[in-house]
Design a protein that fits this description.
Largest sheet: 5 strands, parallel
Oligomer: single chain
Strand order of the largest sheet: 2-1-3-4-5
Helix content: 40-55%
Distance between the termini: 26 Å
Strand content: 15-25%
Length: 267
């Protein structure tokens, strides 16, 4: 895959910030970049050309970034398009749908060039790995069995694609902790990746059950969550979770953590 083959749409009402974003993209080797100051023309363009990356602000003149990604995920051709949000928004109501839709990153605004460059590099590594046509040299991961637990189908799909990009092909999905425990009665796993907030049995209850009542008490469990309550996160850590990752997932960090948890390799 050549970087200059990738199509990038940048949607940002500020001409100055749009210029900074485009400059960073070009510095990474991307050339096919289209700029928009509103979401509607960008969505119209996506009907004719499917982008590889969409970089968007949250508050656009005609809709929010949340509404934009929601509309994109309803279109089969746009369901897997990599989405990177740049926003000063902190409200859960706006950000949670974007986290659940599998955004590759949410970058705070105002942003530094260094932070933007890091987020874009992370995005590029994900795209490069998912579009890599040659087999990855990950012999120790080839036979891994991973269980992904999340009530969001889009989140499960993103984690599955990330696992596949890393070199792990065998990935089973569960929609909540209850279904995960039923699956674990039938199969053994090398890694469990779970959301925190889920119906029926949540992530905390799942970890507690795995550690105390299952026949796989030592399996590494990685928790992915947008939970900000420090008390709840501390409870998860005390229950025996192996690692906690924030949503949206940082692909490079995820890749490193998986290797560390399963193989003992240093990060």
């Amino acid at each position: 895959m050549n970087l200059d083959d990738l199509v990038v749409l940048v949607i940002e009402p500020s001409k100055v910030q749009r210029h900074i974003i485009v400059d960073q993209l070009r510095a990474l080797g991307l050339e096919d970049i289209e700029e928009f100051d509103e979401a509607k023309p960008a969505l119209d363009r996506m009907q004719h050309v499917t982008p590889d990356i969409v970089v968007s602000s949250m508050h656009l003149p005609d809709m929010t970034g949340t509404e934009l990604v929601t509309q994109m995920r309803k279109v089969p051709e746009l369901m897997d398009v990599t989405f990177l949000l740049i926003s000063s928004e902190t409200h859960y109501r706006y950000l949670e749908p974007i986290r659940q839709a599998g955004a590759i990153a949410i970058l705070p605004k105002p942003f530094t060039r260094e932070a933007l460059s890091t987020a874009l590099r992370n995005t590029m590594h994900y795209i490069q790995d998912t579009q890599e046509t040659e087999p990855l040299d990950n012999d120790e991961l080839d036979y891994m069995h991973v269980l992904v637990v999340d009530d969001s189908q889009l989140s499960r799909k993103f984690v599955r694609k990330s696992m596949n990009a890393i070199g792990i092909e065998y990935v089973i999905e569960a929609k909540d902790g209850a279904e995960a425990l039923q699956i674990m009665k039938q199969e053994r796993f090398d890694l469990v990746i779970s959301d925190y907030n889920m119906p029926n049995i949540d992530g905390l209850e799942l970890v507690e059950h795995i550690r105390h009542y299952s026949d796989q008490p030592s399996v590494p469990v990685m928790m992915i969550t947008s939970e900000q309550n420090q008390g709840r996160l501390a409870a998860v850590q005390s229950a025996g979770v192996s690692a906690i990752c924030n949503k949206p997932l940082n692909y490079d960090m995820l890749k490193q953590l998986v290797r560390q948890l399963v193989t003992g390799a240093e990060i």
